[in-house]
Amino acid sequence: MKFRSVSLLLGVLTLVACAPVSNTTTKNDASMSAPMAEKHIVLTSSALQWVDAPAALPAGAKIVVLEGDPSKPGPFTMRIQFPANYRVAPHFHPTDEHVTVLSGTFAVGRGDTFDESALQELGVGGFMMMPTGTKHFARSKDGGIVQLHGIGPWGLTYVNPADDPRNAPTE
What is the pTM of this model? Predict the structure, then answer.
């Protein structure tokens, strides 16, 4: 009798202990593997296809979108390549902006007007995060590449509408 009770107890404990582990593992493996496989992205530098930046940025910049769609809700990552002496007038974004300098230099300052003395220069590896709605301006004296990531939709609103390249008269 004693042996039967112990065997029954051990059997029940084994079932209880194993059931959640195997069910959880199976469920998580199935639910995690499909989305993870769909989001897996590998890009070599030679595979990047640079195009002219959107009209919201001054002429001369190139971009490449690495993942996501900056114009739609959701995460995105893109790179922006600036020529030497590139300048972006004071503006702000509808979402947080995260920028990492990959090559060259990139300088940023905060405020409603472009102020050279307020620029903080970031070299390769430098990082900045500008919160939603923060008015700021940028310059790349020597040219370079930055990587920008965030949650879309990404946008750019100029403090002074006259600075917006989209408002430039057409010839």
Answer: 0.75
Rounded-to-integer distance, Cα 146 and Cα 168, Å = 26
Strand pairing category for 127-130 and 97-104: antiparallel
Cα dihedral 32, 38, 39, 45 sign = positive
- Residue count of the chain, please give it: 171
Residue 139 to residue 127: CA distance in whole angstroms: 15
Q: Which CATH number fits domain 45-160: 2.60.120.10, 2.102.10.10, 2.30.42.10, 3.40.47.10?
A: 2.60.120.10
pLDDT for the residue numbered 29: 39
Q: Which pairing describes strands 106-110 and 120-122: parallel, antiparallel, or unpaired?
A: antiparallel
| 151: nearest Cα among 76, 51, 80, 91 | 76
